Amino acid sequence: MVVVFDVDETLSDMGPLADAFTRAEVPVSRARLWFTEVLRDGFALTAASRN
User: Fold this and answer.
1) Does residue 22 fall inside a structural domain?
2) What's the whole-model pTM score?
3) Among the four 9, 25, 37, 38, which has the fewest Cβ within 10 Å?
C-alpha cells in the first residue's frame, strides 16, 4: 500500500500569512508563488546536502 500526501496547502494553512504579506505591502496573491518557491528551494537544498 502506498499513501501520498499533498502537502502544498493541504497540511499547511497559508491563511494566517495573509496579514504578514499585507504588512509587507506584498499582494496576498503572491503567497502561493512564495510557498512554491520555498518548497522548491528546500527540496533542492536537501537534495544537494552532503550530510
Assistant:
1) yes
2) 0.58
3) 25
